[in-house]
Amino acid sequence: MPNVNSAAPAARLAGFNALGPADAEAELLTCCASRAFAHTVAALRPYRDLAQLTAAADAAVNGLAWSDVREALEAHPRIGERAGGTGRESAWSRQEQSGVDAAERAVLDGLAEGNLAYEERFGHVYLICATGLSAGEMLARLRERLQNDEDTEREVVRAELAKITRLRMAKLLGDQS
């Protein structure tokens, strides 16, 4: 499978646009692990710039059936647990959750307990765009979100998934700004 990140920055979007459908979907799955998302965004190529691609990705995430959101959630490790594997998505997940690296034991224990309570309440992993957040901030937001009703939490999860997807799309195409 071609790797769009192996090209010079100016050519990455053109390289992505030129990929075959299966390869484009494989690249997109590293940003959001929903097959419906990857199929939708790949089918709308070519994109003229990252902003247009990001807008399409946002629309695709917002249009996912809940079962497709759940599929995407299955690729995310619990907050405070490290993603397995050596692929791009695992590396991005470890980087995104780096705020837990220096956390005190009490905060890590709180995250572990909160993750379990969240999963019991909502039936899926607690998803938060962890980039730039400390472990304490992630824990505080987890505790707040445990108070949400199912519909409210689904809206929050979808918004967090969209944020993560936007960040990963930028990484995929080499825009680290």
TrEMBL record:
Keywords in alphabetical order: Decarboxylase, Lyase, Purine metabolism
Pathway per the UniProt entry: Purine metabolism; urate degradation; (S)-allantoin from urate: step 3/3
Molecular function, one GO term: 2-oxo-4-hydroxy-4-carboxy-5-ureidoimidazoline decarboxylase activity
EC numbers on record: 4.1.1.97
Gene Ontology biological process terms from the UniProt entry: purine nucleobase metabolic process; urate catabolic process
InterPro entries, A to Z: OHCU_decarboxylase, OHCU_decarboxylase-2, OHCU_decarboxylase_sf
Residue intervals of the Oxo-4-hydroxy-4-carboxy-5-ureidoimidazoline decarboxylase domain: 17-169
Catalytic activity: 5-hydroxy-2-oxo-4-ureido-2,5-dihydro-1H-imidazole-5-carboxylate + H(+) = (S)-allantoin + CO2
Top-level division of the source organism's lineage: Bacteria
Identification of the protein by name: 2-oxo-4-hydroxy-4-carboxy-5-ureidoimidazoline decarboxylase
Source organism: Planobispora siamensis
